[in-house]
Amino acid sequence: MNEYNQDSLSPGDLFDFNFGYLYNVLRRNTKYIFIITTIGFLISLSYSFLSREKFRASFQIVLTNKEVDSNLSKANKFLSSQGQLSSLISFDKERDLETEVKILESSSILKPIYYYIKDYYKSNSFLGTFDLSFNQWKKDNLLIFLERNTSVLNISYDDYDQALVINVLNKVSNAYQDYSGRDRIKTLSKSIDNINDQISIYKSKSANSLVLLEDYALKNNIPFSINYFTFGSTDQSQLSDGFISKLENERLSASLKKRDYMLKLSKIKKLWQEGRSDQYLSEKMYFISSTIPELTEQRIPQTLLESNTKISELKSKFSPNDPLFIEAVNRRNFLLSTLRDQSIAYLETMILEADYIISLSRRPRDVLVRFKELYRETFRLYNTLSYLENEHITLLLELARNQDPWELISTPTLEDDSISPRKIPIIFSSTLLTFILSVFYFYYKEKESSIIYDEKQFKKLLPFNLLKTINKIEIESLEKTFFNLSAHYLKNNTDQLCIMYFSKSKISNTYIQLSNIIDKLSPNLFFTNDIETFNSEYIYILVFESGDTLSTSIQQFLQDSKLMNPTIIGYIILN
Hints:
It is a single chain. With 575 residues, the chain is α/β, with parallel strands linked by helices. Helix content is 63%, strand content 11%. The chain contains 20 helices and eleven strands. The strands form three sheets. It has a five-stranded parallel sheet with strand order 6-11-9-7-8, covered by helices on one side. The chain has a four-stranded antiparallel sheet with strand order 2-3-1-4. Strand 7 (497-502), helix 19 (509-519) and strand 8 (525-528) form a beta-alpha-beta unit. Helix 10 packs antiparallel against helix 15 (365-400) and helix 11 (278-289) packs antiparallel against helix 13 (300-315). It is flat and about 160 Å long.
């Protein structure tokens, strides 16, 4: 009885991707893959030799500025003495060069050259049509970049006509050299005039805003001075909040001091209410009054301490009624009374002073909000004015520069070989790609066809023993195999062995060949290609032809055989 379950095995599970199977696909379809790869090779070869050649020329130019004249040197010396101003308008070489490159890539410099190329294409029809936009032409044909960590600018141009390539780069070179002096003074002068107008406007606005701010601060008793401004800072809210925080800190400090004064005053009054001894009171008063700087400066607490010490010494030598002892006690009590009165008077005065500071520090919320608004507006105007004045100096310095045209390191030079098409890389990559795609095409074609070629696929699909794998063109091996099978399984006259042949072609050369071989053997040996009919009296050996058997046929056979449950001893694969 054969027990098996293939319900969960999908056709795709039989065709796991592996390089071994891929190699077998290549072997089975060598002829077709060779033809397709050859076609791909010929197409890439034709494309490489029939495509128009594109040529490239390039040159290098140095974007450096010459030494400025003596006036500029004096201005630089002045700026270096103004620390913050110098840092605000210092020239950054890398940033300046990058800006120059962007200008050199702009349409104002390159548009005339672009129109020249369009006219050149029109007058030379063999080049074809020129339908690129300016930005697309600049992106596809023109390459401009700075050498890393240098001021050397590389310019290269690609096109299909060698003469055009050289002409275009000559025009670019001339345009760049003209730009280094052309319109420079005119542009700077116009910028200086514009910035002078803005400086006048912002001087008036900032002065008016400052008057409003100072008047408002004076009216509401807010400490403020124009010297507190930190121009160039961008954190305006932090600066304005600083003034508000200062007022709040004064109020908080006065509140803390008041609480400390009241605590000390309460302790002093409580001491006399408790009715303690003069010795105890003098000790406590010494510690309390020692924390009051004004009393410490008068040495009253220290004198009281010394008096207590003297009484202790006299007590060990004289009786309490001794005049010296009585005089020392009276002096200590006088000092104690004086220290108490002065401490109370001082603490009450300090409490009144703290109350006064607290009252002065309190301001309505709308007053503080309005002050912050006025401050931020004044700060913004003064900061803008400072920036404009710095920019004005920068423009004057730039105008003072006496620059020569940029220096050419190399003249426009055409490369020896065309840059495209790259024949060998195109042919090699196209041929390789065609080969790979054709192999994968046949791999997926076999997968979709459900035809089984590989012994591993039969083993994965069939729950029976593999008896033998035979080359179907070896007739003697076929005859010997079936003779041995009949001799082994047909020992009695009652035994009947059926060879069941599987193939997508019902009648094939292999079927006829096998039929002729089996007919010559035992009369109890049967041969059939009817895989849907079973006889319970037979024992079966299945024969599968590799490359001519469908996985779907085998799966259907396995489902049908569950009902009849025939005796199947194994299977043979014909390669």
